[in-house]
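Allow me, if you will, to draw on your knowledge of protein folds for a short while. Thank you for your consideration; the sequence and its tokens are set out here:
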Amino acid sequence: MDASELMRFHSVPSAAGGISRLVSARMRELGIQVLPLLSKAGLTAEQIDDPTARVKVQSQIKFLELCAVASHDDFLGFHVARDFDLREIGLLYYVLSSSEILADALYKAERYSRIVNEGISLKISKGHETAITFSYTGVTRRSDQHQLEFWITSLLRICRQLTSRRLVPSRIRIMHNRAKTPVEFRSFLGCEVEFGSNADEVVFSRTVTLLPIVSADPHLNELLIQYSEDALVHRKLDRSTLRSSAENAIALLLPHGKARAAEIARRLGMSPRTLARRLASEGLTFSGILDEQKVALARSYLADGDLPVSQIAWLLGYREVSAFTHAFKRWTGTTPRQTRASGNAASPRERIGIFEPHREQLTGRK
């Protein structure tokens, strides 16, 4: 393995694997064979059985998708997060539960959550309201649904348990699409969820963050923070890749028709020439990444029978349905309506590897 390969290997974000272990246990309870699913996701039984073993974030995401298919549960992440013992989060949970007020707990979650999952970072923003925003680094946001819904549901459960109150967010916004808020989501979360948003976040009124933590223990908190700081030192925090950063920026701008190389470069803090050069060094082009993302999203949207083709065209940045139809036929050899009618659009359960057959065509790579 040469230096460049070694660098690429170490840039892959990892997770503590807690979600994978919880989902694996759920599959066993349902009588579903776990080993084949682990293998397809690039995981091993040894990693699941060893609570100290870390896993690749992308492998965990794929494993959750495969388990959702196998269990016929399109809300798997939500269901697992709703039912598990919060103490299974480990060190992070005890750091939060020994804080004095909810605001302190949230800021510690922001700092230490990367110990649990390097692919997701939390940001706490305070103003008239307090927003907890989830952002992805080193992982493409469009590839994930169940892990994100697990995190948001778990966050709300933790806040409720720490304060011993049934807190209800002012709003919840999620980037991936669902036709509407599922009834059980609304019942548990206490509010509607804005799917297809431009951010992943949970927002509370500012007064909520001043609530005391019922289990506050300053001495224990001091000890746990030291453990957390030691753990943080051993985690490289900046593990993002240029490709995934570009894809996440593109996803936000597509519906506005602004997903252009110059704007993406600006948002990534570089010039268009630098962006093109760095992508080229990885055998990529901006147009290839853009088309690949569009075809993946188009197939996913087409699987949703409630989304008209005209709205899908808008979500992908097209102002004319004819332009979207022409592009989609160029990518896939068929029109959007033909794809939907044939049942070949990828359903939420088939998102895994959704654009693999078109990768060479779209990126020009062999």
Notes: Residues 1-10, 236-240, 347-366 have pLDDT under 50 and may be disordered. Residues 9-233 form a domain with the H-NOX domain fold (CATH 3.90.1520). The chain is about 55% helix and 10% strand.
